[in-house]
Amino acid sequence: MNKMNVAIYPGSFDPLTLGHMDVIHRAASMFNTLLVSVLNNKEKCPLFSVSERVNILKEATKELTNVRVDSFSGLLVNYARENDTRVIIRGLRAITDFDYELQIAQTNRILSNGEVDTVFLTTSLEYAYLSSSSVRQIASFNGDISMCVLPFVAEQIYQKYGFGSGNSKSSQEEHHE
Ligand code: PNS
């Protein structure tokens, strides 16, 4: 397959899930360069800082030679322009994502005068249920997130919630609040 140039996969990645990893692998096989970029959104109160998320992404993609990791703030279309890119990648898990994603994609097309297009990859079914917010919630009760994130990411998430390294006991066993 002939590969296209550069694509951007933007997101919060707080935390990076196996669903994101699935999209990264597939997009990286389609484009010469995939720029995975963490949104630096000052309004949110994140679990991981932007630099922590960038480091996690770098570690998780270190074997994918055509993946670059970065962060951005401001409008995505400006960032795309700065990086000579016309293609934004987003994953679509279910119909519930569609309204939100369609709105962002159409806004970005208008803001870029039709220059920037969004390419949607349908998330593999085994990851369709996954979201960063549910991973955060499960981990905050010391539940098992091993089917949701890479092992080294799980360790860092548990540490954020004060549950030692790699501990994944269920909330019933450990956490009675
Ligand atoms: O992982 P997320 O939080 O669903 O990613 C959302 C993201 C980063 C794609 C979106 O919030 C974004 O692009 N923000 C940058 C600001 C922007 O360009 N807004 C205009 C489109 S509505």
Order of helices and strands: EHEHEHEHEHHH
Strand content: 15-25%
SSE class: alpha/beta
Oligomer: single chain
Spatial strand order of the main sheet? 3-2-1-4-5
Describe the protein in words.
With 177 residues, the chain is α/β, with parallel strands linked by helices. Helices cover 39% and strands 20% of the residues. The chain has seven helices and five strands. Strands 3-2-1-4-5 form a five-stranded parallel sheet, sandwiched between helices. Strand 4, helix 4 (95-111) and strand 5 (117-122) form a beta-alpha-beta unit. Mean pLDDT is 91; it is low at 169-177. 4'-phosphopantetheine (PNS) is lined by residues 10-12, 39, 75-76, 104, 107-108.
Supply the key terms.
177 residues, alpha/beta, 5 strands, binds 4'-phosphopantetheine
Question: Would you spell out the secondary-structure blueprint of this structure?
Answer:
Elements: E1 4-11, H1 18-28, E2 31-39, H2 50-60, E3 67-72, H3 76-82, E4 87-92, H4 95-111, E5 117-122, H5 132-140, H6 151-160, H7 171-174
Parallel strand pairs: 1-2, 1-4, 2-3, 4-5
Task: Give me a quick take on this structure.
With 177 residues, the chain is an alpha/beta fold. It has helices at 18-28, 50-60, 76-82, 95-111, 132-140, 151-160, 171-174; strands spanning 4-11, 31-39, 67-72, 87-92, 117-122. Strand 4 (87-92), helix 4 (95-111) and strand 5 form a beta-alpha-beta unit.
